[in-house]
Amino acid sequence: MGADAPSMFEDEIARVLAAATARKVEAEAYLGVDRATRVRVQDGEVETFTLTERRGLGVRVVREGRVGYAYTESFAPDALDRAVADAAANAALLEPDEFAGLEAFGEPTPELALFNPDLAAVSIERKVAFALDLDRAAHGADGRVKTVTGSSYGDSLSFVRVASTRGVDRSYRATMGWAAVQPLVADGDQSKNYGLVRAARCFEELNPEWMGQEAVRRCVEKLGAREIPGGRMPVVFAPEAFADLLGTFASVFSAKVAQEGKSLLVGRQGQAIASAAFTLVDDPLQEGGFASRPFDDEGCASKSHTLVENGAFVGFLHNSETARRDRSTTTGHASRGGYQGTMRVGTSNLVVVSGPSSRQALLSGAGRMLEITEVAGLHAGANAISGDFSLQAQGFMHEGRERYPVHLFTVSGNFYSLLEAIAQVGKDEERFPSGIATPSVLVSELAIAGK
Question: Model's pTM, two decimal places?
Answer without folding.
Answer: 0.94
